[in-house]
Amino acid sequence: MAFEYAPAPESRSVVDIRPEYGLFIDGAFVAAVDGEPMKTVDPASEEVLAEVAQAGPADVDKAVAAARRAYEKVWGRMPGAERAKYLFRIARIVQERARELAVLESIDNGKPIRESRDVDIPLVAAHFFYYAGWADKLAYAGFGTTPLGVAAQVIPWNFPLLMLAWKIAPALAAGNTVVLKPAETTPLTALVFAEICQQADLPPGVVNIVTGAGDTGRTLVEHAGVDKVAFTGSTEVGRQIARSVAGTSKRVTLELGGKAANIVFDDAALDQAVEGIVNGIFFNQGHVCCAGSRLLVQESVADEVLDRLKRRMATLRVGDPLDKNTDVGAINSAEQLARIRTLAGIGEEEGAERWSAPCVLPERGFWFAPTIFTGVTQAHRIAREEIFGPVLSVLTFRTPAEAIEKANNTPYGLSAGIWTEKGSRILWAAERLRAGVVWANTFNKFDPTSPFGGFKESGYGREGGRQGLEAYLAG
Amino acid sequence: MPAKQKRADRTPDAPVRLAVRKTYKLFVGGKFPRSESGRSYPVQGADGGFLANAALASRKDVRDAVQAARKAFGGWSGATAYNRGQILYRIAEMLEGRRAQFADEVAAGTGEPTAAALSTVDAAIDRWVWYAGWADKYAQVLGNANPVAGPYFNLSSPEPTGVVGIVAPAEPLLALVSVVAPAIVTGNTVVVLASERHPLPAITLAEVLATSDLPGGVVNLLTGSAAETAPWLAGHADVNALDLAGVADAGQAAELERLAAENLKRVVRPAADDWRAEPGLGRLAAFVETKTVWHPRGV
Amino acid sequence: METHEAERLAAELAGSPEALRTFLSGLPGVDQVGAEQRAATLATRSIKTTAKQWALDLAVRMVDLTTLEGADTPGKVRALCAKAMRPDPADPGCPPVAAVCVYPTLVPTAVAQLRGSGVHVASVATAFPSGQAPLAVKLDDVRAAVAAGADEVDMVIDRGAFLAGRYEEVFRQIVAVKEACGDAHLKVILETGELVTYDNVRRASWLAMLAGGDFIKTSTGKVAPAATLPVTLVMLEAVRDFRDRTGRQVGVKPAGGIRTAKDAIRYLVLINETVGEDWLDPRWFRFGASSLLNDLLMQRAKMATGRYAGPDYFTLD
After folding, report:
1. Chain B: residue whose CA lies nearest to A80
2. Any chain C CB within 8 A of the CB of A100?
3. Taking CB atoms and an 8 Å limit, are B137 and A132 in contact across chains?
4. Coiled coil where (chain C) (predicted)?
5. Which domains occur in chain B, in start order?
6. Could you tell me how far CA A281 lies from the centroid of its own chain?
7. Which residues in A80-89 are b (16+ Cβ under 10 Å) and which e?
8. Domain check: are A146 and A21 in the same one?
């Protein structure tokens, strides 16, 4: 008999979305000096959630100036132990307002509430908690104790508040002040974070949030008054930033795209490997720079793995992000959905075989069924380009050396996965993979104590861990 | 209780209210038992006046406390570093809420002005925060990957030593926190012989620990005569390390160290510690064992 | 034809301890962390309103209402049987449970009480709970229970033999017990709390299925930990893979430690999302439990009235 789960929607009543939002500069919300407001949309319903200011050059000037003042007068000279206390406060307030933040994140981003509730927001709090503890211990980290000054930070839409935490927590712990631009399509939790800074009595100007689109971001990172640029996003924009800072004294860290190989050997724990494949590519609708988007499976077990994978994919629950039983939510924007569709179309044109999980997609909103392509080779575009969606390309290999060769045969180098019950093979493979994070018998695991970042065109610099402080200290 | 509190009992127009006094007991396994010996001793204020009776712990209380500490070790050392850090930070939060009470208690014992006592309390709170931050970092500073000359993965990381016996310094609160926090943040459990002269803030601190999500038995606190109980702690075969911070007499320290040698306890000798200064990593590193793991790399 | 495949495979492995060992060690490993995370994620499923009502009724129908105490008496068992047939006297719509599970000496009492009710009589046997007795004694135990009218037999495997690697001996014992059962259904208790690793659980599951078990069951209830979600997940994966391979479907029974309706619903979710609806049936899934039933009844009452119920309003038998 079929077990149909009744809808189990998380209550929206914990969030209070204002019709319009200004910029957060020097400790207060202010209207933008110039520029039309932009709309942020619920990707699951296409409903407009709020109008958000777009910061122009004059606004960015104000924000950078406020950050500079706060750096010179207050934050840069404050004892580390006091900075620590502010960050601990922020961590605690995030914990206290966790449900509100989770619901808001799911509404604005489209990710399932199970993930925003159990992954994103707890990690945000943990990240602030972790870096709070470093603020008075910088001398032990080995990167000096002198901050850089004002940090310009631009973050993506896939993990809006978590990426904010990855940027702001280490910057503040090291004594820098920040101007942060959230992504155009997901500004709302950053604006609640501004309120949290107010609740924590964080001195004005230490954190400034300027909303806007690509132009705002460009203005910010190219601003002469910033000492440091930190960017997470596409490799293309990362390359532009790297060009634009050439010849300046700005320090830069970039966390960019990926096309991670998830390598399954024939002796893997198959049921858990299948879970890992699913988690690797369908977590957060595949909007993950380190997603395991290329499955490399040993030919001798390929059929069995694919059978199990398809059976498992058929149980994925796609739909309302606020339903507590949803596994795969909405694609974040119409633009992203179009890009996924285009690349999936190219996959078919190039002769790969497409299989999508049987699921009924809602009529309104942006949706894409979990999909795998088999018969993919290294020559296919879907094996080389980052799709940034719930689309998995399946390739096979015969020997461990071939697996490593294929895994490394990409301009990217952010992450990789290894599935085998043999410990020495894990370490052998990990040593050879040219990637910043290697997961063995697990995937998409994150922790504030663990450094994250890429090799090659996946960017440079690390976020998280002791190493994450390096980006914000003068050495 | 302290003179201060008696004054506070009076308001101008109301009749004098008789204060309800607190019974100070031991703190063992998360509970507050009296000494099994049934003994107590009077605690005097700086002016020589009576403050309260404190429990006078016996060797059997030491035995019970060590048993409680051992029982708690598996869970506490197995908790995630993040969890231990959160709990230490929670202790700071709870202590902050009782600043005034601690300042009164410290001042009553030392006779210093309230402002000075308050600064001691504040430093004690900040010390918890300092160590809370170390919970998920000391392994990143004390541990490392080792580039051995061969096809091996090789990683060293610190692990807690086990049950640590602590003879707490004579000074109240800050000194006590400064020896307890570095031992427990890494996952050790402790048996503390509190300052004989200033046991009251120590027991009140135990009340804070008991309400901060710290599992019972992680910190066990005995009041009384360290001269009487410390040898039992030093000689106990199920204690793995000993902090002699509060042993003033050099001869006694040497004797305790000799007893500790029997099962090769790690010993921190008494030193002229400045409890106000930033503590560094010394005390934390004293009670961890480095473990190195080798594993081949090969297909 | 498909069940022939199960027999063919069993026959192929039965003769040779080496072949059996090689087969069992060739099963894919289970990664403990991954399996537990999967179970924990499924435990977050939120089952509400109509789905909850449906699940509660199904869970009641899956209960093997159990009493296995040295102090059991005919009076105790009669009361339990009454409860089994009519769990909630206040609600005629409440279904009966699947079976009553007792020691062999009390089977006649249960059979007499339950005659014609459709509630099965299960008996533990084979030197329950340790399994440490000569095979002849264990078989007599089984025959006595079946002769007294038990139509389901819950046997324990010899964990000592299993842990010592004497798989073939365990296999032969199960085969012998199955034969002694005649038409009675055989549930094979693995005692997963003593097998400890999930790799062992998977191997023991296959061993029991190859030897002819109709059900595989987690625990006696006398050893902690008893049933857990991840252990049941591994066993469900085993029955799923076994049916894929041989065509024969085997049931699963977690027992011990399942006390709340919330727990029970988590198991139903586990079935639903790992082996699917074929196992969402009392013929293929049972809960070995006692106090669980009253919590299911209380939750049913809450669904019906909209108010929280109290334990005083449900019978204690």
Report:
1. B130
2. no
3. no
4. none
5. 3-8+25-296 (3.40.605.10)
6. 14
7. beebbbbbbb
8. yes
DSSP character string of A199-261: HTTPPTTSEEE---SHHHHHHHHH-TT-SEEEEES-HHHHHHHHHHTTTS--EEEEE-----E
Alpha carbon of A432: minimum distance to chain B alpha carbons (Å): 10
CA distance B290 to chain A (A): 18
Residue-wise burial string across C103-123, b where 16 or more C-beta atoms lie within 10 A, e elsewhere: bbebbbbbbebbeeeebbbbb
Alpha helices in B79-113 (DSSP H): 81-96, 99-110
- Position A7 in a domain: no
The pLDDT of residue B2 is above 50: no
C-facing residues of A in 274-293 (CB < 8 A) are: 275-276
Size of interface A-B (CB pairs under 8 A): 68
Whether the predicted pLDDT of C251 surpasses 50: yes
- DSSP label at A118? I
* C2-305, CATH topology level: TIM Barrel (3.20.20)
- 3+ Cβ–Cβ pairs closer than 8 Å linking A and C: yes
**A288 lies in a domain?**
yes
A434 and A292 belong to one structural domain: yes
Question: Do A193 and A313 reside in the same domain of the chain?
Answer: no
Which amino acid is residue B260, in one-letter code?
A
Query: pTM of the predicted model, to two decimals?
Result: 0.96
Residue A352 lies in a domain: yes
DSSP for C19-51, written as a single string: HHHHHHHTSPP--HHHHHHHHHHHTT----HHH
Count of A–C CB contacts within 8 Å? Answer: 74
Residues of A in contact with B137 (CB under 8 A): 130, 133-134, 137, 140, 449, 466
Determine the residue of chain A that is closest to C41 in CA distance: A114
B interface with A, Cβ–Cβ < 8 A, is 81-82, 85-86, 89, 126, 129-130, 132-137, 140-141, 153, 281, 295-299
CATH of the domain at A133: 3.40.605.10
**Touching B: A residues 16-75, CB under 8 Å:** none
CATH number of the structural domain spanning residue A314: 3.40.309.10
Please report the residues numbered 250 through 279 in chain A whose beta carbons come closer than 8 angstroms to any beta carbon of chain C.
267-272, 275-276
pLDDT digits (tens, 9 = 90+) for A145-190: 999 999 999 999 999 999 999 999 999 999 999 999 999 999 999 9
Residue A134 sits at the chain B interface (C-beta within 8 Å): yes
For residue C145, give the 3-state DSSP assignment: helix
pLDDT of residue A420 exceeding 50, the answer is yes
Burial of B148 (0-12, 13-18, 19+ CB in 10 A): exposed
How many residues does the structure list for chain C?
317
**DSSP single-letter state for residue B220:** E
What is the band of B81 on the pLDDT scale with cuts at 50, 70, 90? very high
**Domain ranges across chain C:** 2-305
Encode pLDDT of B248-298 as tens digits. Answer: 999 999 999 999 999 999 999 999 999 999 999 999 999 999 999 999 999
pLDDT digits over A90-141, tens only? 999 999 999 999 999 999 999 999 999 999 999 999 999 999 999 999 999 9
Tally of structural domains, chain A: 2
Residue A399 lies in a domain: yes
Q: Check residue A465 and report its DSSP letter.
A: T
Nearest CA of chain A to the CA of C117: how many Å?
Answer: 23
Q: Which residues pair with B164 in a beta bridge?
A: B190, B241
Same domain? For A238 and A289 the reply is: no
Residue A150: what are its φ and ψ, rounded to 5°?
Answer: -100, 125
Q: Locate the chain A residue with the closest alpha carbon to B154.
A: A427
Place of tokens 């981003």: A109
Domain that holds residue A181: 12-256+455-472
